[in-house]
Structure formats: C-alpha cells, structure tokens
Amino acid sequence: MKFDKLEYTGKKPYHDRLAATHWQPGDTKLVPEAVARKLLRFVEFSRAPATQQQADQLQLEAQQGQQAQQPDTSDQQDDAALQQAHAAQQQADQLQQQERAATESMLLTIEGMDKGALAKYAAKYEVKLDARKGEAKMRAEVANLIEQFGAR
Fold first, then answer.
1. Is the pLDDT of residue 20 over 80?
2. Average per-residue pLDDT in the chain?
C-alpha cells in the first residue's frame, strides 16, 4: 500500500471521513494514495515536498517491518481505547446525574418561594413574570424555565 504525504493549508479544522483523520491548519500527514487523490481535489490540500515524502515512505516501511517482527499489540491498544471510552462515558453520566440533581433541588426550592422570590428567580432567565398572576401559575412558569434551561 502506497502513502502520500499531504499538507493542509486551510484556515479551519477539517475532519476527513475517508481517512478518518482530523486536520488542523498547517498539518502534514501520510494518507493512502487513493484517499490522497480525492483530497487533492480540494484547494486546501497539497502534496508535501518530494524529499520529505520519500524519507517518510522509507520510515513508514521500516516501521511496518518492525511491527511485523513485534508481537501484535493491537489487542492491548483496543483494550486501552475501550477503557478510555468507558471512563469518558462514566464521567458524562456522572455530570448528567449532577445536573439532574441540581434541577430537582431547585424545583423543590421554588415550592417554598413567594411571588417576589419567584419573580426575582425568573429574572435570572431574563424573563419578566406578570405579578398579577397567581402564585401557583408563577411557580409553574418558573418550574418550566428550570426544566427547559436547567438550574441557575
């Protein structure tokens, strides 16, 4: 399999679905030749200088030769990636639980608020409540704001 070294000269980060790579402005990466042909259609991509490309090709071939001699560590890498993804998922779940707990806590707190406190709390959401409404209706509006935008 042949590789080409491409340089990304765009101004914004770019995610390439073909090679599953992320490009930042000024990045230079090795990509398979078939993918390189498709990316070179875009103005933002250009071939890297030939001397660097040849050196990188030799280096890549040397790395592939070394990998053939070394035992397969892809299982270890897969396990590490899986553990990392699992940890990230747990952290996201924990943040979601904390947010929900804060929302529930605030919903309980507004049950004890009077009209003035409800109006002040609604001002945090940049909403002006009509003071002529009943306390129950104001409380329901504030509860809707909390459910919709989260506790503040």
1. no
2. 82
For residue 29, give the DSSP letter: E
Residue type, 70: Q
Give me the residue spans of the domains in the chain: 3-69, 83-149
Query: To which residue do tokens 């947010």 refer?
Result: 99
Tokens of residue 141, six digits: 């509006």
Contacts of 32 (CB under 8 A, 6+ apart): 1, 2, 3, 4, 19
With a threshold of 0.70, does the pTM exceed it? Answer: no
Residue 117, token pair as written in the block: 């406190």
pLDDT tens by residue, 86-107: 888 888 888 888 888 888 888 8
Coil, strand or helix at 100: helix
pLDDT of residue 119: 92
Element spanning 111, H or E: none
CB 39 within 8 A of CB 6: yes
| Nearest alpha-carbon partner for 4 in 43, 26, 35, 44 | 35
Residue type, 51: T
